[in-house]
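Predicting holo structure, NDP bound.
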Amino acid sequence: MASKSQHNAPKVKSPNGKAGSQGQWGRAWEVDWFSLASIIFLLLFAPFIVYYFIMACDQYSCSLTAPALDIATGHASLADIWAKTPPVTAKAAQLYALWVSFQGYLFPTSAEDCKFTGNFFYNYMMGIEFNPRIGKWFDFKLFFNGRPGIVAWTLINLSFAAKQQELYGHVTNSMILVNVLQAIYVLDFFWNETWYLKTIDICHDHFGWYLGWGDCVWLPYLYTLQGLYLVYHPVQLSTPNALGILLLGLVGYYIFRMTNHQKDLFRRTDGRCLIWGKKPKAIECSYTSADGLKHHSKLLVSGFWGVARHFNYTGDLMGSLAYCLACGGGHLLPYFYIIYMTILLTHRCLRDEHRCANKYGRDWERYTAAVPYRLLPGIF
Ligand code: NDP
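Done. Tokens:
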């Protein structure tokens, strides 16, 4: 089904001066009320969500309802819960204030790469400068995307396995599954780091709170929730269940990796490659950049890219579900990851398609006609 935005590709003037419905690509972005409301909601509630989840594990053995029930029934007050929380230090508050005041805003590395939408909250959340740097050697976006959070993910998981060993004298098969499946994902990131430079985060997103806070707080705290949960609830899966979950995780990873690999190979070789043993089919497309220049590109319709328009996200979601299933069915908390990833990747898919529809115009419509589904053939 073609999305509404696909019919709204802007009419632009091509270099020869003729108007057409050729897609145009640029940084201009009018912040609509829904995006603004979502941004303010996220800025306020994302830190609260992280706090609530970690507090629920620390003080209530990972029950999400127990803290709220305790407060509602008068068994605990907000002050009681807050008193058991590690305090905010003056130094941390100073560092944060400094970061917020200077983030890319006052001393941009490349002033021409700054995007101001006219909306303070959007600028803060999605970033102003495209590639803020210190000198030539330190790129903020690359560093934050590719180092602290993703490295911490594996190290924190390993420390949870060590904690299980310390508490119970053994490590459960569910903890091993979570550690192995998530470590594969992280190792894949480092193994294919050059591929990663072509993802939306690096190619299109500006550096702001979304990437900085997301990589330093959201990722290490919330992507490791399964391991944390298993410290409090050491689930030992039956062998068939463990094997089924392992299979789901590995098939998901295979789809994720192969789909990304097929696009990378296709783009790198300009289509001079084999996909599933055959010469790939593609849709020729063009777009006009904001400087008025016309460019050519190709959209792959073979391999996994012919199955659905974002089958790489589907593989990622299968892997995410496997991590959660490893924790059994006792509590909702470890399932937060699959709920979050479904929202993140569905929104990302729509955001990306909105951008592609504006970029490629009618060519994008030809592509969506050739590959009609986004994530699941026949369903969505
Ligand atoms: P993609 O790698 O799918 O890139 C989308 C871009 O690819 C489009 O903007 C378009 O760019 C191009 N494109 C779209 N369709 C085609 C096609 N048929 N043929 C060739 N090029 C096409 O998106 P992401 O960068 O979001 O995701 C990369 C991976 O990272 C995914 O597997 C995702 O699951 C994963 N991911 C994981 C996250 C996590 O927290 N675990 C978070 C985000 C992503 P162009 O303008 O060049 O045409």
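Residues 1 and 372 are 6 Å apart (CA to CA).
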